Amino acid sequence: MKLILLILYFAVLIGIGIYCRKHATDVNGFVLGGRSVGPWLTAFAYGTSYFSAVVFVGYAGQFGWKYGIAATWAGLGNAAIGSLLAWRILGRRTRIMTQHLDSATMPQFFAKRFGSKPLQIGASAIIFIFMIPYTASLYNGLSRLFGMAFDIDYTVCIILMAVLTAVYVISGGYMATAINDFIQGIIMLFGIVTIIVAVLKTQGGLMQALDSLARVSDPSVSDTPGIFNSFFGPDPINLGFVVILTSLGTWGLPQMVQKFYAIKDEQSIKLGTVISTFFALVIAGGSYFLGGFGRLFSDRVDVATEGFDAIIPAMLSGLSPILIALVVILVLSASMSTLSSLVIASSSTLTIDFIKDNVIKDMKDKAQVLCMRLLIVVFIAISSILALIQYKSSITFIAQLMGISWGAMAGAFLAPFMYALYSKRVSKASCWVCFIGSTVLMIANMICKDAFPDWLKSPINAGAIAMLAGIVIVPIVSLFTKAPDKELVDGAFDCYNKRASVRQLTALDE
User: Fold this and answer.
1) What pTM was computed for the model?
2) How buried is residue 471: exposed, middle or buried, by Cβ count under 10 Å (0-12/13-18/19+)?
3) Ordered DSSP codes for 220-233
4) Residue 333: helix, strand or coil by DSSP?
5) Distances in whole angstroms, Cα of residue 229 to Cα of each of 21, 31, 64, 224, 416
6) Which CATH number does the domain 2-395 belong to among 2.30.29.30, 3.40.50.720, 3.90.550.10, 1.20.1730.10?
7) What angle do CA 218, 222, 224 make, to 5 degrees?
8) Burial of 57 (0-12, 13-18, 19+ CB in 10 A)
9) What is the dihedral of CA 195, 197, 200, 206, to 10 degrees?
10) Where are the domains of the chain?
11) How far apart (Å, rounded) are the C-alpha atoms in residues 144 and 149?
12) CA dihedral 116, 340, 281, 66 (to 10 degrees)
């Protein structure tokens, strides 16, 4: 039954990729689906790109163990900040200005918004450096689940996932990814609810599980009775940094912001905001809520030797074969949807922002699409090799680098991109300060962690600080550095002055 479900699932993915070939004949179609993607596809593409096996297996297990049921705050933050506010603050303006500037990637936006080719190359370098390790980390959550569910070597699992993702992304581009993300999102919604109910049932139901969690004690964490069943958990400060990194980070990640480029119309933005927020509430809230009960399964897992990634698989090991098959497909869905989003963002950035005009002059549209397809193969191959090296040699830095990747990219891009949509005064210098400051901070955190104060040694805390610092730094630096060219900025902001007809219910006649 498990194999039948997997085969059916894979057949659907490939079929959609082949069906969507007609939408992927030019750069606009391959990267943005012709900017005609509706609310359901856009919202699910956003949500499935947001949540991968890293969240379900890694973060949910780790933070659920550390903070107990209070880890659910991370999921609530993902829904409120990472989805609702992201759509409200960035969605419409991103769609309007990127179309006006004819930009298909985030680095291209910086180049045209600020009239700076070096900014474009700098942004593309940051994405190239930090996207591949992030991509490799997606495979990490699959190893234990496949070991639990199938007698299949992990190498086969990685190759299978890589090949299938490459087939449908190369065939159908963004439209195939969006449609598959919708299917994968439905699986994730149904799967997470079913699994939570099944796992809690093994503990006597929700109330019994909460009562049991209240009786768990760990003197090394806190002497307070019932701390893992409390509202804010044993360490609310560090939990707050987790919420900031995993929620605010989406505002500056290229593969997330790029979803707004492709939105069809105003109605799609409004409906997409609601759908995306609901999706995040169920998936992220459900994952962290489930992870909060991890300590009830301490008899099945030794965290000291097996690590946090073993917690969620241990919680699921007692489920029926059908539910385990559902779990495997859920995690595959989460990982493949995020992987497809990352490789499209990486290949399009490298092609449009680096190879085009810099390496190959006058690069035609079809040549760009071919180059992106070839680079998708390269990126997936490199990330697969890194994942295999990590698995075979037990090197952990690749998994740790996922947090560093989020911190570096979101810290570099979040503030400059957001302010550039709203303010004419943002300067090129402020962008460079964020680009350089965030990458240096996160690389230093990886290489010489011991030089940092205790509260800043965690890449999660460092990444959160990089994002928050950028929000303060950009307006201050812009105030004391050369203002951008007035004609250039006015031309970019003209897009907001274009008149649009709306229903009288939205606005009365003048």
Assistant:
1) 0.88
2) middle
3) TTB-STTGGGSSS-
4) helix
5) 51, 45, 11, 11, 39
6) 1.20.1730.10
7) 100
8) buried
9) 150
10) 2-395
11) 9
12) -90
Q: What is the pLDDT of residues 267-307, one digit of tens each?
A: 888 899 999 999 999 999 999 999 999 999 988 888 878 77
Could you tell me how many residues make up the chain? 510
Tokens 């490199």, located at residue: 382
394 phi, psi to nearest 5 deg: 60, 30
Q: How many other CB atoms are found less than 10 A from the CB of residue 500?
A: 7
The tokens for 285 are 């809230």
Contacts of 48 (CB under 8 A, 6+ apart): 181, 184, 185, 188, 333, 334, 337, 338, 341
Q: Please classify residue 323 by burial: count the beta carbons closer than 10 Å to its beta carbon, then call 0-12 exposed, 13-18 middle and 19+ buried.
A: middle
Q: How far is C-alpha 24 from the geometric centre of its chain's CA atoms?
A: 23
Question: For every residue of 232-284, which 3-state class applies, written as one string?
Answer: CCCCHHHHHHHHHHHHHHHHHCHHHHHHHHCECCHHHHHHHHHHHHHHHHHHH
pLDDT band at 89 (very low <50, low <70, confident <90, very high): very high
| Residue that is written with structure tokens 């012709």 in the block | 34
Of 242, 182, 270, 295, which is closest to residue 406 (Cα–Cα)? 242
Q: What are the pLDDT digits (tens) for 452-483?
A: 888 888 888 999 999 999 999 999 999 999 98
The token pair that represents 473 in the structure block: 């730094």
Helices (H), 68-114: 72-77, 86, 92-100, 106-114
* Contact in structure between 56 and 291 (CB atoms under 8 Å): no
